[in-house]
Amino acid sequence: MTATQHVSRVVTNPLYRGHRMKLGVMAFNCSHGSTITTAEGAWELHWGDTKKIAKMADSAGLDVLLPVGRWRGYGGPTNFNNSTYESFTWASALAAMTDQIAVFATCHVPLVHPIMAAKMATTVDHVSGGRFCLNVVCGWFKDEFEMFGAEWREHDVRYEYATEWVELMRRVWSEEKEFDYSGRFFQSKRAWSQPKPIQKPFPPVMNAGGSEAGQHFAATVADMNFVILRNQDFDGGKTQIDKLKSMARAVGREVQVWIHVYVVVRDTEEEARRYLNYYVREKGDYDAVNNLLTIFGMQSKTLDPKVLDEFRFHFIAGHGGYPLVGTPAQVVDQLEMLTRMGVDGCLISWVNYVDELKQWIDEVNPLLEQAGLRQRYTPD
Q1: Which residues touch 233 (CB under 8 Å, ≥6 apart)?
Q2: Would you state the pLDDT for residue 89?
Q3: 104 lies in some domain
Q4: In terms of DSSP bridges, do strands 205-207 and 199-200 run parallel, antiparallel, or are they unpaired?
Q5: Kind and range of the H or E element at 65?
Q6: Is 132 left (phi over 0), alpha (psi -120 to 50) or beta?
Q7: How do residues 291-320 score in pLDDT, each as one tens digit?
Q8: 51 lies in which domain range?
Q9: What CATH code is carried by the domain that includes residue 256?
Q10: Which residues of 319-346 are buried (b: 16+ CB within 10 A; e: fewer)?
Q11: In total, how many domains does the chain have?
């Protein structure tokens, strides 16, 4: 493929493959990934291991590598997520060393101008041969904004800003001639950029929209909604996902719904739950998780102590993700249920990414193929 060829993203991007359940690896551009624990083997940020994870996932036919956008840690003994790789440069490097997996960057839209983001994204799209995706984040960690001296807007206004930001970026991606842009937040004279992304109409955009304003943004602007399941039983989860997809269809669009899952696979369910409780109850960094929940606004005294303790548990275990805990067969059964719920893809985190990703590839992937959730991957 030459730099001047442009191809439908359905052809080039793994997000549009026919797997019933798409899979990716997330948060390994940050120290400790998604687990707020001092347990042995917890993810330490090293480029050698980062390359190893990317190549293992790529060779196994997984679909996505997704970084977290983080600029400072949360304190405590771990100083959770304190050490991070910047996501656009991370994505470009991993795109160059992989063959088939989609590579994301995560962008705080108030911190990067959309024309700059458009250029960086296009670069990664060319490096990857049309496998780039962009995770758009409106921002919620005020301390990070203060580092940049960036304006801290009201919650719903952040999504209005992001809507205009994405609109300008997509015009830069698609318009061949110079254009002027005049909006509420952006004024641009003779905007222009070459080359254009390989993917047509443009690279996919993800957003984690949980509030009403966020859900509206994801339904009307994004291609993927990355959600936290508010209710983890089947009926509650299906109701939430059906609503999100219906909101998009009401305006003539289709969105994929993805979730984060934290995974503990062992030979028996008892072993898996014992390890989960070990790294959360015994080795959890409660100082860091309390800081994180305070930022999220969850440390209110009006919360029932049991509910707050459950929040703490799941955030230590995997940043509030959905638990996949048990034997390989049990994990496959849970993924089958999530598929029926309407989940299109899962982004996975572990305590020990290297060892547990290998375990996933060896023990879980074959069962997913047997269950019809994944197609067998054969490298070209």
Answers
A1: none
A2: 98
A3: yes
A4: unpaired
A5: strand 64-66
A6: beta
A7: 888 876 654 444 456 667 787 899 999 998
A8: 23-370
A9: 3.20.20.30
A10: bbbbbbbbbbeebbebbbebbebbbbbb
A11: 1
Residue 6 lies in a domain: no
Rounded distance between C-alpha atoms, residue 172 and residue 153, angstroms:
25
221 in a domain, yes or no? Answer: yes
Residue 26 host element (H or E): strand 22-26
CB 68 within 8 Å of CB 144: no
Taking only Cα atoms into account, the Rg of the chain, rounded to an integer number of angstroms, comes to: 20
Residue 166, both tokens:
């994405």
How far is residue 26's CA from residue 69's CA, in Å, rounded to a whole number? 11
Going by C-alpha positions, the residue among 171, 161, 167 that lies closest to residue 221 is: 167
Integer Cα distance of 210 and 215 in angstroms: 6
**What pLDDT shows up at residue 293?**
81
Assess if residue 18 is contained within a domain: no
Joined together, the tokens standing for residue 181 give: 């842009």
Quick one: tokens of 149?
Answer: 């001296």
**pLDDT over threshold 50, residue 1:** no
What is the CB neighbour count within 10 angstroms for residue 251? Answer: 9
The average pLDDT across 235-251 equals 95
CB atoms within 10 A of CB 8: 13
* Confidence label for 40 from pLDDT (cuts 50, 70 and 90): very high
Nearest alpha carbon to residue 189 among 181, 198, 199, 200: 181
Helices (H), 221-268: 234-249
Q: How far apart are CA 29 and CA 19, in angstroms?
A: 26
Q: Facing residues of 132 across strands?
A: 103
Q: Considering only CA atoms, which of 329, 340, 335, 322 is closest in space to residue 367? A: 329
